[in-house]
Amino acid sequence: MTSNPTIAPIDSASEFHKIQSRPASIEVKDITVSFKTPKGIFTAIKNIDLTIKKGEIVALIGHSGCGKSTLMGTISGMTAPTSGQVIANGAVVKGPGPDRGIVFQNYSLLPWLTVYKNIYEAVDSVFKGKTAAEKREIVEENLKMVTLWPHKDKLPGQLSGGMKQRVAIARAFAINPSILLLDEPFGALDALTKGSMHIELLKLWNLDNRNKTIVMVTHDIEEAIFLSDRVVVMNNGPEATIKEIVEIPLPRPRNKKEIVHDPIYMETHDKLMSLLFDKFSIEDE
Ligand SMILES: Nc1ncnc2c1ncn2[C@@H]1O[C@H](COP(=O)(O)OP(=O)(O)OP(=O)(O)O)[C@@H](O)[C@H]1O
User: Fold this and answer.
1) Is the model's pLDDT at 265 over the cut of 50?
2) pLDDT at 219 over 80
3) How far does the centroid of ligand 1 lie from the alpha carbon of residue 185, in Å?
4) Is any atom of ligand 1 closer than 6 Å to the C-beta of 67?
5) Domain 10-93+210-276 adopts which CATH fold?
6) How many whole angstroms from its chain centre is CA 136?
7) Predicted confidence band at 151 (pLDDT cuts at 50, 70, 90)?
């Protein structure tokens, strides 16, 4: 328990349980992914089971090369599982689909198209039945949401890293997927830009009534705790599995400055550190 009036463990726990009673958005069922390599078969992840609820924010965390992107790839449909299946919104994932928007670390914007056109093209390819005016409205609304409307005629090369990432996020939101998959979306950004991007992301998620499911790969423990409802910690590969799933029962909206003083935050941070590292100083040999 805490004396801080802004922190309410009982309410936060019930908020957490409310999410857990929602219907499943993503069901990862006994997924194994093996790759053929010149040295033989390499099994990256093995027998992974994970259910993510509608509107939940889940972070995947683990050491480099443990298989986080591979697992995300099976959810996005860009990586075919060797065995097992992923069910997204009740349907077996057989490839990428407009119900799952993806944002990568490298922005994946088309460099020859303006900011506006990068989003318009995506909207145009998904909303075949909408009129040009309706599509223009969607582009405008989403660019304004990430405060990049004044930069709409610039090419990606004329933007800063944070701006490019906001365009990528606006594009993912514009196609209005029920599932947003973020693979280290803020990895290349400086700490200040990263901090404001976290707030932007939660703002967009809130504006959408917390209906979008968000799965995010990260290496950043603070980012994982600030954003997520649960953090999935993976073991090192090969044949990586889930080591532990850590619940983050911190109330929302979360305040970046205050949250670090919350005993739940500190406890969770310690727990994640212990799960990820076995040495904490040069004396730990
Ligand atoms: N197409 C492929 N062919 C062969 N091996 C692959 C392939 N894709 C991934 N791997 C291997 O699978 C393992 C998991 O890779 P993955 O990219 O999923 O890890 P990660 O946890 O996302 O890493 P990072 O945090 O460094 O981005 C690694 O050992 C990688 O070398």
Assistant:
1) yes
2) yes
3) 17
4) yes
5) Rossmann fold (3.40.50)
6) 27
7) very high
What pLDDT, on the 0 to 100 scale, is given for residue 197?
83
For residues 212 and 205, give the distance between their C-alpha atoms in angstroms, rounded to a whole number.
Answer: 7
Q: Are 58 and 75 within 8 A, CB to CB?
A: no
Ligand 1 centre from 101 Cα, in Å? 21
pLDDT in tens, 91-124: 999 999 889 988 877 668 999 999 999 999 999 9
ipTM above 0.90, yes or no: yes
Domain layout of the chain by residue ranges: 10-93+210-276
CB 42 near ligand 1, within 6 Å: yes
Neighbours of 133 (CB within 10 A): 7
> Whole-angstrom distance between the N-terminal and C-terminal Cα of the chain?
35
Nearest atom of ligand 1 to the alpha carbon of 33: 12
Identity of the residue numbered 113:
L
For ligand 1, what atom is nearest to the CA of residue 67? 18
Strand partners, 10: none
CA of 18 to the centre of ligand 1 (A): 34
- What ligand 1 atom has the least distance to the C-alpha of 72? 18
CA of 183 to the centre of ligand 1 (A): 13
- Predicted confidence at residue 12, as pLDDT, reads 57
Residue whose Cα lies nearest atom 6 of ligand 1: it is 35
- In angstroms and rounded to an integer, the radius of gyration of the C-alpha atoms of the chain is 19
Q: Is the CB of 36 under 6 A from ligand 1?
A: no
* Bigger pLDDT: 206 vs 116: 116
237 close to ligand 1 (CB < 6 Angstrom)? yes
Locate the ligand 1 atom nearest the alpha carbon of residue 184 and give its number.
Answer: 27
Alpha carbons 34 and 32: distance in angstroms, whole number: 7
Helices (H), the chain: 9-20, 68-76, 115-126, 132-145, 161-174, 191-207, 221-227, 256-259, 263-276
